[in-house]
Amino acid sequence: MTASRLTALLFIVSTLLGSSHAARSAGCGKSLPAQQPAGQTYQTAFTQSKGTSPSRTYRIHIPSNYDENTAVPLIFSFHGHAQTSKCQEELSQFSNEAFNPNAFAVYPQGIDGTDGESSWQGAPYAKSGVNDTGYVQDMINHFNDIYCIETTQIYAAGKSNGGGFCGTLACDSSLSKQIAAFAPVSGAFYVPGSSSDACAPTTIALTCNAGRSPIPIIEFHGSADTTVPYGGGGSHDQCLPTIPHWVREWSTRDGYGLTNKTTNLYNNQVQKYEYASGSAFGTVTHYLTQGLGHAWPSTSPNSDNSAGTYFNATPLIMQFFGSHTL
Ligand SMILES: *[C@@H]1O[C@H](CO)[C@@H](O)[C@H](O)[C@H]1NC(C)=O
Ligand SMILES: *[C@@H]1O[C@H](CO)[C@@H](O)[C@H](O)[C@H]1NC(C)=O
């Protein structure tokens, strides 16, 4: 074979390999809905197909450079307990095009729980029968239908109860196969059916029904979090695992074992723990920030933290999402 033929063959093989993972949604080629200009956030009501609470809302930010013929990623960002989709947009900054120039950012709104405050499925205060995983499934189907989405690059991030819900989605047999990577921040990983009295946070069994393996996870937590303590424990009559236990269980479930590479950052004020080796290195990653409370890490003050901290979590999440596709 001549060199030019070999080059041509390699090109075809690499093109096939590259495109075998890409998947454009049915919305490619369709114009944006008239009331939804690119570069803006749009809030809308949404009717869930099944479930006890079919009437929902979400906010969606459409990238300024949106082109109906170019498939782009989509990022869900779930708010915390008693919060709103609008607060979550401001907190997580996925509509900030300095952080996220290309992907759709979606901020769904939770249904009021047993305490009258907005919440997500899996938390002790969520109303039983609310099918939030079904809501996410319906939104994915809807977005794929009307926008040009790269369906191998749908992601989920969330704060606190919204971070816990990322864990619920990662352990759902179906959604875990549609969402490429998960980024809980200060996640409240309640163990359904557990009790606060007999809570053993370092060893409590964490059941999971993920539909694929490995699942990429990046978690951020503050050592001074008093709402979802790093060391876990009883909360709202249920048991929260320690964050290291939750992270290590993911590494084990993903097949990487317990060993991590620890990197000290910012004068030892931030620890980065990365699991797995070789090309999978860092597929499970955890950032611990010393002295930080129940906050989305940000160098500038935000609604969680009036002082700001050492780094911005959002660009790290974007980088992590960018290196993991289905
Ligand atoms: C939740 O909704 C999904 C999608 O509509 C459906 O497949 C699932 O059966 C529902 N779960 C429950 C418990 O109703
Ligand atoms: C990471 O590894 C170090 C060294 O073995 C260990 O002390 C630490 O507990 C581990 N951290 C986590 C979060 O697993």
From TrEMBL:
<dbReference type="InterPro" id="IPR043595">
    <property type="entry name" value="FaeB/C/D"/>
</dbReference>
<feature type="signal peptide">
    <location>
        <begin position="1"/>
        <end position="22"/>
    </location>
</feature>
<keyword id="KW-0964">Secreted</keyword>
<dbReference type="GO" id="GO:0030600">
    <property type="term" value="F:feruloyl esterase activity"/>
</dbReference>
<keyword id="KW-0119">Carbohydrate metabolism</keyword>
<keyword id="KW-0732">Signal</keyword>
<keyword id="KW-0624">Polysaccharide degradation</keyword>
<protein>
    <recommendedName>
        <fullName>feruloyl esterase</fullName>
        <ecNumber>3.1.1.73</ecNumber>
    </recommendedName>
</protein>
<dbReference type="InterPro" id="IPR029058">
    <property type="entry name" value="AB_hydrolase_fold"/>
</dbReference>
<dbReference type="GO" id="GO:0005576">
    <property type="term" value="C:extracellular region"/>
</dbReference>
<keyword id="KW-0858">Xylan degradation</keyword>
<dbReference type="GO" id="GO:0045493">
    <property type="term" value="P:xylan catabolic process"/>
</dbReference>
<keyword id="KW-0378">Hydrolase</keyword>
